[in-house]
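Hi support team,

I'm opening this ticket because the web form for multi-chain structure prediction keeps timing out on my end. I have pasted the exact lines I submitted so you can reproduce it. The total is 726 residues across two entries, so I didn't expect it to be a heavy job. Is there a limit I'm missing, or should I split the entries? Thanks in advance, R.K.
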Amino acid sequence: MEKNLYKNLFEKLDLGKRVVIATVLDNNPCNSNSFQNKILLTQEDLIKYDKASSFYETIYEKAKYALETGNLQFVKVSEEKTYLIEPYFPEPNLIVLGGGHIAKPLVEFGAKAGFSVTVIDDRPSFANKPRFPEAENVICESFEKCFDLINLNESSFVVTVTRGHRHDMDCLRKILKYDTAYIGMIGSKRRVKGVMEQLLSEGYSQEKLNRVNAPIGLEIGAVTPEEIAFSIIAQVIQYRRLFDRTTGTIKKSKTNWPEFDRDVLTKLSEEDNLSKAVITIVSTKGSVPRKEGAKLLITSNGELVGSIGGGCSEGAVINTARYMLRNNITYQIERIDMTGDVAENEGMVCGGIMDVVIECFNF
Amino acid sequence: MEKNLYKNLFEKLDLGKRVVIATVLDNNPCNSNSFQNKILLTQEDLIKYDKASSFYETIYEKAKYALETGNLQFVKVSEEKTYLIEPYFPEPNLIVLGGGHIAKPLVEFGAKAGFSVTVIDDRPSFANKPRFPEAENVICESFEKCFDLINLNESSFVVTVTRGHRHDMDCLRKILKYDTAYIGMIGSKRRVKGVMEQLLSEGYSQEKLNRVNAPIGLEIGAVTPEEIAFSIIAQVIQYRRLFDRTTGTIKKSKTNWPEFDRDVLTKLSEEDNLSKAVITIVSTKGSVPRKEGAKLLITSNGELVGSIGGGCSEGAVINTARYMLRNNITYQIERIDMTGDVAENEGMVCGGIMDVVIECFNF
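Hello R.K., no limit was hit. The queue was backed up. Here is the completed structure from your submission:
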């Protein structure tokens, strides 16, 4: 059952959806298996269950906050019960349509900014891996057909920088069918105006066209291809961190991207019969190598997957997790104090404190 | 005399000054040597000679415009006279104080954006060339003493991203003594407020402190070191392209950086006895490899320095220049038509038209 939950998690993420997994950690020995205490929620679920029963009210409230901010919530609601609300965000994709002189630095910057980058051009000499070593995917296909090969969704940031505004317009017609995180189109004010008027006359709504950032990029007076790429990536980051999809405006507080341990989650979704303990960081203080949400998994046959940052103190928690697996203990909260671990090293102050929750998944 | 003009040009540029060289191209055979017809002007000269005689009025007006916009001016004022107004801008320097996790991507981005980058830290493990391969200079020195080793001027963009706000504050005290193009300091709003209050109490004027961009960078919600570096470089580019020093505000039209052929200008400043012809692009139309201001020099002993973009049609102008050198012709205006040179190649339309002026410097 828990395996299905994590399979479901991956399915939602592949669709570009943000997900929350809410866990009720219960001291009551009658609810001894944390498996039954996990629920997966998406934005759509939260809207649907807006008027949830008061029993779930706190969970839904915290889940909403986690989806918005990317911050993990660890809330003790009673002596018996603690809620662990973990947000999981899909990896943001940067789709660059056109492989010319602006795409070259943009693809590089996109990868540096943490995007999985796809670049598309219909000319083999522009759409090839050696030209774009930082791209996850390089697709050589017409701008007409390429949309069948990519997956545009709420986590897609789409930039059209093709060699001509006719191609840009063709792309735009396709892109506007999808619900994407960002759309930007290159072009002078005059050219952009022409494209917009054309699309309006074809029946595209003004509201839809307003989603297009054109002329593209923040207004920094960019001249060179590199400068234009900087202005674009700055705007894409702004949309990733500050754009509020519900209001369509730039908000004040920035969205965090939660830690994501793919290997751990994959392991949890696998059809083996191993018992597993998962250590999750739930709060940190000071300088720590990994943040809230980072995970380390220990299987009953001794395998270790993921990391909560290493250090001497980590060993003690691993031993605790092993003890719990042997003795069928459901969950436990532990503190890892690393303030003594690392000395002041060339001026970089290291060391911090983190609280972790250890959950056992017994099969 | 002309050699001194070009030496003077380099001296001014080294001080971070923008320079205009105005040339009067005269058909009157009495003024046969263009050497006597060149004048070098800086912003200060233009302010000083604001009320210039009407004889120079057009030159001063055009020179002002060239200094502001970076655009070369080529103006026929009468049947006999044409003015060539060439702006020369110093290479912009990015000075990064602190060699930590933000400096790492910032130095790389700075070089990509066309800055000559200097990075400074007092820790050898942070201030070393392998860590910053893209930096022009890596200086390992205390933040106290390093200012004696660098040249801060109107072309300097200074970023303080040291490991502590005490160091940032020490740096700021030094930087504020200079007239720089940009100052930015890292830090949270709270921390920045503390630094500013401290410096105010030490007697620094509010006006001076207002020059400091702190918290640094455009507000894009940057979280990771790379994102912070993107937000900083975007702001630095904005200051380079759009900041109006005279009004202290962001302007609408962007400043161009004129082409700069160091080798050609160096050759013109040299103490040899060679006659030289210089071909300068004065206007372009369509897709051309180099822009207004680009230069190609031909010496009387056949040496070629610099480039106006190559292509078959370039050869004809070189022949004209050689003929002029042999026959003591002062200057000539020529058109280079490259529209037939390069065919449409994989969708990239090449070819354009450019006007050049050929000037002979006879010794």
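A quick check on our side: The longest strand of chain B covers residues 276-287. Let us know if the file doesn't open in your viewer.
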